[in-house]
Amino acid sequence: MTQPVPAPVPRHRLDGPEDAPVVVLGPSLGTTADLWQPQLPALAERWRVVRFELPGHGGAPVPDGPFTVGDLADGVAALLDRLGVAEAAYAGVSLGGAIGAELALRAPERVGSLVLCCTSPRFGEPGPWRERAALVRGKGMGPVAEAAAGRWFTPGFGGAAPYVAMVAAADPAGYAACCDALARFDAADRLGEIAAPTLVVAGAEDVPTPPRGHADRLADGIPDARLVIVEGAGHLANAERPEAVTEAITAHLDRTWKGTSR
């Protein structure tokens, strides 16, 4: 059987003051680092912001073999090493949130504060993820892109086009490999080991990871975690209700992340 190989240090972008405490932002499956553009101005005022790309997304290369969410978390740790950052805050959406949870479990000394947005300790049964991986390997990103707006946003949201374009532009091999990683991801029994002060953000109308059974499991399982449910938001709550999500994240970081940049 083919053995997983470590994901490479991810492609990344830097914003904000060079001497400020570092905040790492992880995107969701199918999106790029631009998913965080609505929050970037507020975050970059006070923190050094590191946004990274998933394999095959945003022009990032695809590893030569399969990888796990843990491998992606190791890649973020390697990125911090490359940047000379010992400890950072981390915020991630969906798959990006799973990477953050895994990083907090594998390297707790690296995560000073954690934000888990529209994510889950386990993204359902493996079968549908493997089916989606097979779909994009066989037919490309078209079928997934066509369904993205309905999966990610509430019916009345009019700003889906840029995010649909992100998934349409993803490399099918990289997207499929990320699906396979999600199929294997399960942190449900390890949540109590997360020591970082944690904010869980959920979209009230999130279909892929609804608050009940996903966000509430994170908030209940992580010691002292706080849960914020954003009304009128689907799976990409930070894009659909940017003001509410930005306010929740900045308030959490103001309370919990006074670290240093190096």
Automatic annotation (TrEMBL):
GO molecular function: 3-oxoadipate enol-lactonase activity
Protein name listed in UniProt: 3-oxoadipate enol-lactonase
InterPro entries: AB_hydrolase_1, AB_hydrolase_fold, AB_hydrolase_sf, PcaD/CatD, Pept_S33_TAP-like_C
Database matches in NCBIfam families: protocat_pcaD (TIGR02427)
Domain of life the protein comes from: Bacteria
Key words of the record: Hydrolase
AB hydrolase-1 domain segment(s): 21-134
Transmembrane is among the record's keywords: no
Domain (Peptidase S33 tripeptidyl aminopeptidase-like C-terminal): residue spans on this chain: 195-254
Enzyme Commission number, as recorded: 3.1.1.24
